[in-house]
Amino acid sequence: MKSLKRYQYERYAVLCNLAYPRVFKQTNYGFDPNGQRIVYNRFGKVMMRILWSKKSDEVIVVIKGSHSLWDWLLNLGMWQITPKTLGTNYPIHAGYSLLILQESLPGYNSDKLGLSVYERLLSYIVPHIELNKKITFTGHSSGGAISTVLADLVEKKYPKSIKRVVTFGQPAIGGYQFRKRYLLAHKTYRVCCDLDIVTFLPPLPFYYWHVGKLLWLHNERVYENTPTLLRLGKSIVSWAIRPFSYHLMSRYIRNKDFFDDR
């Protein structure tokens, strides 16, 4: 697996942080004036941003983490289901499944009514895939977890269309079958900052499994694939003092300089 380069990490981290504000001017970050589409959730709130430039062969899908009471409540849906309408061959977190399958309200005149978040996403990215552009998924927290499933679904439907998946502070979204059947482990980077307790959720060992390569930013270094028990041991001590401070996107941006330019 190739290393995630510093400039790539920095760009995805900044985009994830900027996904939260209501207004995002994509031209400030090298994307075309018409190089943004927004996927809205059932309440008409921004859930994803699709960003592109004619000069690049990469289209970036940025997915926000939990940002409403509804989203936070869905985090509690920790049982697993196999959403047949998605065409998955593995069960995933029930709450996150609802986030993907919820209706996406139209945001543009050409949008059709009645599409799910997944279907709306496809309507925006398939034209780019047909132009041989590659899709990168990135997201923070639950948005990172959802990124892995959506990227896997797109890869199954459009082989070799995914460039990479980069997540920040994500909880797990699937069980062992998901880990076993996930197609993009060699292209997935799961970034954990210091002692972010959210990266150990849901708290159900062996029922939930992570996928991809772990990059742990800790003590001014990047550690690869650090055993969970080692990270957890350090986390328990820190959690008693500052349980969620390491989960903020600002912490990930602070640590961007840990990555080299290889």
Walk me through the structure.
The protein has 262 residues and is an alpha/beta fold. The chain has one domain: Alpha/Beta hydrolase fold, catalytic domain (Rossmann fold, 3-Layer(aba) Sandwich), CATH 3.40.50.1820. Helices cover 31% and strands 19% of the residues. An eight-stranded mixed sheet has the order 1-2-3-6-7-8-9-10, sandwiched between helices. Strands 4-5 form a two-stranded antiparallel sheet. The longest helix has 16 residues. The protein is globular and about 50 Å long. The two termini are 13 Å apart.
Note the main attributes of this structure.
262 residues; alpha/beta; Rossmann fold; eight-stranded mixed beta sheet; two-stranded antiparallel sheet; 8 helices; AB_hydrolase_fold; Sec_MonoDiacylglyc_Lipase
How many strands?
10
Sequence stretches where pLDDT stays below 50 over 5 or more residues: none
Order of helices and strands: HEEEHEEHHEHEHEEEHH
Give the termini distance in whole angstroms.
13 Å
User: What is the fold named in CATH at topology level?
Assistant: Rossmann fold
Radius of gyration: 17 Å
- Give the overall silhouette: globular
Domain count: the total is 1
Q: Could you name the CATH class?
A: Alpha Beta
Number of helices in the DSSP assignment: 8
